[in-house]
Give the backbone structure.
Amino acid sequence: MASWPAPGDRALLGKSIKRIDGPDKVAGRAKYTYDIIRPGMLYGRILGSPHPHARIKSIDLSDAQKMPGVKAAIPCVEPGGQAHYQGEEIAAVAATTEEAAEDAIRRIKVDYDVLPHLATVEQAMSADAPQVFEVDAQPRPPGPPAAGAPPPAKVPGNVTKPSLQQEGDVEAALKTAEHIVEGLYQTQVQTHTSLETHGGLCEWDGDKLTAWVSTQGVNAAREGLANALKMPQANVRVITDYMGGGFGSKLGQDVQVLIAAKLAKAANAPVKIMLDRKTEHLVTGNRPSAYAKVRAGADAQGKFVAWDAETWGTGGAGAGAGFPLPYQVYVWPNRRRTHRDVYINAGPQRAFRAPGHPQSCFITEVVVDELADRLKMDPLELRLRNLPEDQPNQQWRKYFPIGAEKIGWNKRHPTGDATAGPIKRGLGCAANRWAGAGNAGTRASCEIMPDGSVVTRIATQDIGTGTRTLVAMITAETMGLPLEAVQTKIGDTNYPFAPGSGGSITVASVSATVRPACEAARDALVAKVAPGLGVEPASLIAKGGRIQSKSDASKSLSWKDACRQLGTASVTGDGAFDRTLATVGTSGVQFADVEVDIETGVTRVKRIVCLQDCGMILDKLTAESQCIGGIIMGTGFALYENRILDRNTALMVNPNMEFYLLPGMSDIPDIDVTLVDQPERGVVGLGEPPVISTAAAIANAVANAVGARIRKLPIAPDTVLAALEQERAGGTL
Amino acid sequence: MPSRRKDQPGFSRRSFLKTVGAGGVAAGVLAKTPGTAAQGGVNAVGPGAVPITLNINGQTHRLDVEPRVTLLDALRNRLNITGVKRVCDRGSCGACTMIVDGRTIYACSTLAIEMQGKKIRTVDGLTQGTVLHPVQQAFYDHDGLMCGFCTPGFVTAAAALLEKNPNPTPEQARRALDGNICRCGTYVRVLEATLNTGKKGVTRG
């Protein structure tokens, strides 16, 4: 069984190690999918539906095909088919230049039968709404459908039947509550806005396909392409060397890549399709909106007694909008929740960094602060009274007081900054949790060559998290070599299987597989050289560039001399996921310090304090960056980001980067990250947890500053001013 | 409201030329040429490909492009100079930042044909052989990068700032980098890297 080196015996692991691909990235040498040009390559473009809902009567490609430079033109939908959202794929062309492809797209003639559409959840839920979609006739029972079960009967509808989750007796418990908070809470639709748009480059060689794809999962992309093209997975190779961000939106097979493969076949030439920014916003996924009508009660001592919620939200055209509720940090002895998915004519949702959690955390943590105000209790004290006992992966009781100390919680004023002037200051906090377990099917191989070269191969992908660096660190650590002496080969389905990078599972999957692979290769080398040194293999260690006896330093070989004894044959170690090296579950807390101008409604986040555990830390530097990045993305969700659909046309009004607002350099608060190292626990993922509680902490801080409750994201100026107005008119508190 | 939406001082990065390029192709583009300039006139070129000469990172490149082709697309698609990235393609994210005659520009909103006779510099030219530019080294040292797709633009903007102002205050550095967007959230360490390079001094221009 594999093991990690003892904490005092680690040369690289747990230290701050710079990314091994850093030089290539800062120099602009790193080649992303977007950057690859193949000999004879054509540029593909897709015509998207200009209508949010239409039936396609006919598609005429003849003029497009005659345009200069056009080598292929294909329909993406059959006549009679429907487009259910703006930008849904109608037809595509491939041409010798992007400009020629764009010109040809404009010559495609499509006869649309424009159909009624739904632009908002309110429209979709209204009694006289056109029934645009189909929903299950009966609520789905929990759990996956039974094998061989017939597909559920469908009826026209825009809203799914309510699904009910409950535990305990909510009505009886609420009768015993001393304080009850009631309110409607809502969060917006957020788009991933990955800087490298979705797309790929497809090249055929006979019946074999090579696809360079901007994906979070090379193996999932291979499976998707093979299934869609009805060809063996063995004939598809997917490569993702460098990847410009995905955040959950690049986990599945993408239609753009499939269209590129079809165009490449039709044109008999490689075809690259990378989406433009507008289409990226429209069709590549988003975080669904969330609405929650909540009643929550506490007793006179501040113990939560019950949570009751009716929730809904939209994930767009035919896609769910589920999220957990209440957020499972605090103990609610009695819970009831009904949820409905609402369908509108907008691009379908996809997994987005901690799916469901930021929404759930915001709703729950704001309710907790409101209960604290009813109780006239410090919200931190109320939290501590309702947290479960600490576990290794649930350390909120420990972290909250530390965070409070760092943010200066003792200086927190009661809700509403009473100081004179328009600038109000406030503090807030929130907690998070995530699972992040590894994938048991992960495999890796490590090869040691007779000249001393070491290569570890695994079909994972580095989506900006530092995976490539971690593989190199573990390899070098295991061989007792410097980082520069080993190579990492990732991002290619030709290497052993690893799962897609979603759910924060990558680091656990990869590290707990690479370590045994490297140990096996190292042990094979040691077994070769032990007889020559006259010692048992078990008495040898690899350290400081040498293979040496633990007890007798004179019995040793340099790494190169040891490898030379391999003769002409490399040794290879195969690794399978070893769950003893990994663990499950992370916890963290965040505190926000904000400044709000109550005349303009503008919020500025001054400081975020973050305490976060992630089991055994592999690379402190990149782990800190991950936390900082999550907090910044959470700040965007809190204050700026909002996919806005025109309520009449259902067309997105901000499908760009100047009106779809992301945080910029001057919006970044002071960020104080404390990583809690738990070397005894093993490795667990960190990609998602840091993004979860930022918006909730900011919302509570804004309410603390302005003295009006913030129940809606983003906390744009109009949200703040409306909350202040409502407070004046009769109260939000 | 994010303060990056303020106009950048010194340069109007939202060029109207992109609109001309996309929408008014048939009209061609008015371009000064040496021959006509002597007669005090202008000459319409395009819409077909025309030969142009660009000076990029000290090297002369001759290529044929349609007048509507942006500087960014000319480099990326015609010359395979891909360090500069295309992200928003309308002058709001900075991933395509280049330095032209000492000033930062959004290459996605600049026509290639208009950049003749100018000194164009990109992230690809900051490295000398395998030696990183001090700004690049600082980004690497401070982990001022994650997925890396915005990084070339940030590196270029930071290099341009430090050439003009070798010792910026944090506020000056923030303003200079407000025209660039990162989605992974590397800003904190990008700023650290930029300020730290400033302290060490940038010698190359």
Remarks:
- Chain A has three domains: 33-116+194-283, 286-436+583-729, 438-581.
- Residues 438-581 of chain A form a domain with the Aldehyde Oxidoreductase; domain 4 fold (CATH 3.30.365.10).
